[in-house]
Design goal:
Blueprint: E1 7-13, H1 15-33, E2 51-55, E3 61-65, E4 67-73, H2 89-93, H3 113-122, E5 123-125, E6 131-133, E7 176-183, H4 194-200, H5 204-219, E8 224-232, H6 237-251, E9 256-262, H7 273-293, E10 296-300, H8 326-340, H9 353-360, E11 369-373, H10 384-391, E12 398-399, E13 411-419, H11 446-457, E14 462-468, E15 472-473, E16 504-505, E17 507-514, H12 516-530, H13 537-541, H14 546-561
Parallel strand pairs: 1-4, 1-8, 4-7, 8-9, 9-10, 13-14
Antiparallel strand pairs: 2-3, 5-6, 11-12, 11-17, 13-17, 15-16
Length: 571
């Protein structure tokens, strides 16, 4: 459809998915607030792909994420399930029942001071209980924050209990779905196993609630290109995701379904043996079932491997993060996600979700890996050819799919996005007549530089690349993870640090169909084979039978075999 946004509906399933999603939507919000910049082309990315316009009951225009999220009882903290943006005190008070009422009041969670500042900056509650939203400029996004109302620069990490503690985006009342039968915290009533998750969407109550919300969002789309799903793999939400993708495949066949399987920081085998075993089982069941129903599945984790004895978390040269904090890990994964999803969010010449998946998942290779350079390492005096030559033959990104080091491993297909570099540094700026250090320095456009570089790195790989001027925004409440050697724009400084906070960064992100998945999936099957399931009968009691496990092992082996055909770059 020419000229119209190709809409995407986002599903967030699970609490860590909520963390990643909160950072993701905060980054979209920061981009919407960005004032016009003469150096950047207007609207490289189309926000209408992810957002929808609407009106409150009082006729005020809104611009909210096209989003359905599912989480457990006790996971929302002070966030109202029906969204404060549409809240009406008068409607809350309109109770038809005239008989005796008994009121049970739960403990009220104190609202994070950061969110209190957000609300005062974007609107106010009138005396009659109606939320008055401030004027939306140009009909898109919230009011830009002025200096006087800019929220506090950082949220103390100890104040972050749940994802809603730092979400700065208003949601539509149809967005939040709470699974009341399971608790977010505590010792009992937890959603721990794949079978439990599957059973949630077998219950008419939750199935109908999800189906109603899907129809609400889908029916208002002019050209729905598909669904992106952020799904926890490590707990029972892997089962919720499996049933959700099955529902989407049945009802919306032909639309793209791209699933991001999320895993939080590494576990300790000694301290949490049951959680670690359940993580292994849930991840395996999740990957197999999600890949069967999705166009593409990509595990996202800062862990070194998917196994019972995970390798140390991955390292970024210019980031300092705590792998045990979901607030930190989710910020990094959201930044990668914001970059690798660029192809189907572009204003001009976008690649649809289905096209992206088809390019990466041929011959049954439905699982792909992700990687990112956060930030992409560039000194202000360098050009893009200089930076790429300096990398040598090493992989230019950090792996983010818990598949170990993929350096030297064959890649079958890849989609690469580089964003946030000034146009002046896209090509070599050498004085005419100066000997060229490499073939990259002879290229006349940044796009040609990228294409030439990846052609040199892996000559026979099916590859696509996108180069954007728009950087990735990392404004508060994004955590302060960056090295003091970075400038406000995320470039590596030659001069001593100025102390200014990093506000935006260049990022290189990639999705790869990699031969490393042959070993990763094969090792996962081997570890499952060694398990004595009699010790973990509680997992089986949750709705998984012995035959399901045997079928899982066969499917894992079949999936792993799709990635045979060369362990190195040269067959």
């Amino acid at each position: 459809m020419a000229g119209g946004a190709r809409e995407v509906l986002t599903l967030q399933l699970g609490h860590f998915a909520g963390f990643v999603g909160a950072h993701w939507w905060n980054q979209q919000d920061a981009a919407l607030r960005e004032p016009a910049n003469a150096k950047l082309p207007p609207g490289e990315l189309c926000p209408d792909v992810l957002y929808r316009t609407g009106r409150t009951v009082h006729g005020q225009e809104t611009y909210t994420p096209r989003l359905i999220l599912m989480d457990l009882k006790g996971s929302l903290s002070s966030l109202k399930q029906e969204s404060g943006l549409y809240w009406n005190k008068q409607l809350d008070a309109a109770i038809a029942w005239q008989g005796k009422l008994t009121t049970h009041t739960e403990e009220v969670y104190p609202k994070n001071p950061y969110l209190q500042d957000l609300l005062s900056a974007e609107g106010s509650l009138s005396s009659d209980g109606v939320w008055k939203v401030k004027v939306i400029p140009n009909g898109k996004g919230p009011t830009p924050l002025t200096t006087a109302t800019t929220p506090k620069p950082l949220i103390p990490t100890e104040n972050i209990r749940v994802w809603s503690d730092f979400l700065r985006v208003h949601l539509h009342p149809r967005s939040i779905c709470v699974i009341q039968k399971y608790n977010h915290d505590g010792e009992a009533g937890l959603l721990e196993a794949f079978g439990q998750g599957e059973s949630v969407l077998k219950e008419p109550r939750y199935l109908e609630e999800l189906d109603d919300r899907l129809h609400f969002y889908v029916e208002e789309c002019d050209y729905l290109q598909g669904f992106q799903i952020l799904c926890d793999l490590h707990d029972g939400f892997s089962g919720v995701g499996a049933k959700a993708t099955e529902l989407l495949q049945d009802e919306y066949s032909g639309r793209g379904i791209i699933t991001w399987g999320l895993l939080p920081g590494p576990y300790s085998l000694q301290q949490e043996p049951q959680k670690n075993i359940y993580r292994l089982l849930n991840t395996a069941f999740g990957l197999v079932h999600l890949s069967a129903q999705s166009s593409l599945v990509c595990p996202l984790s800062l862990g070194g491997s998917l196994g019972l004895r995970p390798d140390p978390p991955v390292n970024f040269p210019h980031l300092h993060y705590d792998a045990t904090l979901p607030f930190h890990c989710s910020a990094i994964l959201a930044t990668a996600l914001d970059t690798v999803t660029v192809p189907y969010r572009l204003h001009s010449s976008p690649v649809s979700m289905v096209q992206l998946a088809d390019m990466l998942t041929f011959s049954g290779k439905k699982v792909v890996t992700a990687g990112a350079a956060i930030p992409f390492p560039l000194v202000p005096s360098q050009s893009l050819p200089d930076a790429l030559v300096q990398l040598g033959g090493t992989t230019p990104w950090t792996p983010l799919s818990a598949c170990g080091d993929t350096c030297g491993t064959r890649c079958f297909a890849q989609s690469v996005v580089l964003r946030g570099l000034d146009r002046a540094c896209h090509t070599s700026q050498l004085t005419p007549g100066t000997p060229l250090p490499s073939r990259l320095h002879a290229c006349t456009t940044g796009e040609e530089v990228l294409a030439q570089y990846f052609q040199q790195q892996q000559p026979r790989v099916r590859s696509s690349s996108h180069l954007l001027l728009t950087p990735c925004k990392v404004l508060p409440p994004y955590p302060c993870l960056f090295s003091s050697s970075l400038s406000q724009q995320g470039l590596i400084q030659d001069d001593p640090p100025t102390g200014a906070a990093v506000e935006s960064i260049p990022v290189l992100g990639a999705l790869c169909s990699s031969a490393s998945l042959n070993q990763t999936l094969g090792d996962l099957a081997k570890e499952l084979t060694k398990l004595d399931l009699r010790r973990w009968a509680s997992f089986m009691d949750a709705g998984v039978e012995q035959g399901d496990l045997e079928e899982l092992l066969q499917d894992l082996h079949s999936l792993a075999q799709c990635y045979q055909g060369g362990d190195s770059l040269v067959d």
